[in-house]
Design brief:
Elements lengths: L2 E9 L6 H9 L4 E4 L14 H5 L14 E5 L5 E5 H4 L30 H5 L14 H15 L28 H13 L3 E3 L34 H11 L3 E4 L3 E7 L5 E7 L5 E11 L3 H10 L39 H7 L8 E3 L12 H7 L1
Parallel strand pairs: 1-2, 1-9, 2-6
Antiparallel strand pairs: 3-4, 5-10, 7-8, 8-9
The structure holds flavin-adenine dinucleotide (FAD) and iron/sulfur cluster.
Length: about 375
């Protein structure tokens, strides 16, 4: 069991961890990163549909690391099922750079009211809503900075749900779009809705040694073979490593954090690639393993000071989890009804659609949001 002492130890290397690793290493701090997954490089990402859809290539096998889903049955009793038996994996991306290697890169900002849900919409019975201690105005500078560093392509158009921006444009020009985007614009307008172009964390032109997108047609769920996608690995970790202040240990699955008796984390235990147990000591720890795994690690790190798990004296760690829900709609374009020139444009492979409709970002639901509805009246 090797014991090494570092200044700062970051656990995880995805979207949450990497900006911290980037800023600390650029500012001269020594950072050690413990990442559960392997260190795949750009050359390792082939456009292989079987690899991408059988996601356990990038995530743990469910036989090895199943998750447990609990549901209430008709009698109101809780029933649990292992994802090994259902085959539904909730893992995202376990590798250096985390899920951002596989993301589609739709790069939304939160809106001012998202930071102030309680004061904007009021309390909801049975829910546990608080305002953030920071607001959008404080964050705007950082949104802008991240858009520059990650490399966001798009164009800003004014619309009713546009967040306040200090810059009129995104850093890079929009990506090429399929003719379908213009049909969506026309169709939604006719219906009285507003389809807005969504910026992407994908370079439309080369920048700082990264190539531009070559429209490979296989983007979301696939790693990028050109470094155009602004994954945390490409956009942040590669530069962090260049400082000489950052070291990444892949295949390091942290399973326990140890405190010094005053509540401060001083040590982490992890399984290495040979399944041997290793230890790292540091002055400061950052835990950023995605919401569920961060909660799991804290709950697994019980001690006399924290009998219910680290930082869990409130009993709230792992509670109030919010999933982003999804819905799917579909429509049919009749190829035989298209003009020849339109049909040809439709056939161009790889181009993006990049549209979202934000008409229902807020809904006037008096029962769920009494405060907002009262103000709206
Ligand atoms: C296919 C796909 C498409 C997506 N598209 C979009 C999109 O278009 N727009 C958007 O905004 N978001 C998108 N996302 C979501 C986005 O990628 C995630 O929300 C974001 O990466 C979460 O950041 P994170 O740091 O919390 O977790 P991650 O980026 O997943 O990083 C967590 C890291 O922690 C590591 N880890 C976990 N447990 C441990 C442990 N015990 N010890 C050490 N390391 C550990 C993991 O291996 C992982 O690398 C997409 C995700 C996927 C999978
Ligand atoms: S080349 Fe472009 S389309 Fe292909 S994965 Fe990279 S960013 Fe996505």
């Amino acid at each position: 069991m090797a014991l090494k002492k570092y200044k700062i130890c970051v656990i995880g290397s995805g979207a949450g961890a990497s900006p911290i690793i980037y800023e600390l290493s650029k500012n001269g701090y020594n950072v050690i990163v413990l990442e559960k997954g392997p260190w795949l490089k750009t050359k390792d990402f082939a456009k292989d549909e079987i690899v991408a859809t059988r996601r356990d290539v990038y995530t743990p096998r469910l036989e090895d690391e199943p998750q447990v889903i609990e549901k209430k049955n008709e009698k109101g009793n809780w029933e649990s099922k292992s994802t090994y038996s259902t085959g539904n994996s909730f893992w995202n991306g376990n590798m250096v750079g985390g899920s951002t290697n596989l993301m589609s890169g739709y790069f939304h900002r939160m809106k001012p009211q998202d930071f102030k849900l309680l004061s904007t919409y009021g309390q909801i019975k049975g829910a546990n809503i608080v305002d953030w201690p920071i607001d959008y105005e404080e964050m705007e500078y950082y949104y802008d900075k991240v858009e520059q560093i990650v490399g966001i392509s798009g164009h800003v158009i004014k619309h009713s749900t546009l967040e306040p921006r200090s810059k009129p444009t995104f850093p890079f020009p929009p990506l090429a779009e399929n003719i379908v985007s213009s049909w969506i614009d026309r169709g939604t307008k006719e219906l009285g809705y507003n389809a807005v172009p969504i910026p992407r964390a994908i370079l439309s032109v080369p920048n700082k040694g990264r190539s531009s997108c070559f429209y490979s047609n296989y983007c979301g769920s696939y790693g990028c073979a050109s470094d155009a996608k602004g994954s945390a690995r490409v956009a942040l970790l590669n530069d962090s490593l260049k400082t000489g202040n950052c070291k990444i240990i892949p295949n390091a699955k942290v399973f326990k954090l140890v405190t010094d008796g005053s509540g401060k984390i001083i040590k982490s235990f992890y399984h290495d690639n040979n399944d041997d147990i290793q230890t790292i000591e540091a002055d400061l720890f950052v835990v950023a393993c995605q919401a569920v795994e961060t909660s799991r690690l804290l709950l697994m790190s019980k001690s006399k000071e924290f009998p219910a798990g680290l930082g869990n004296n409130s009993g709230l760690v792992g509670k109030n989890l919010i999933f982003s829900a999804g819905g799917v709609g579909s429509g049919t374009f009749r190829f035989d009804k298209l003009e020849k020139s339109e049909a040809e444009k439709l056939k161009v492979p790889g181009l993006f659609v990049n549209r979202a409709i934000q008409n229902w970002y807020e809904i006037d639901d008096k029962q769920s949001f009494p405060k907002k509805s009262k103000e709206a009246l």
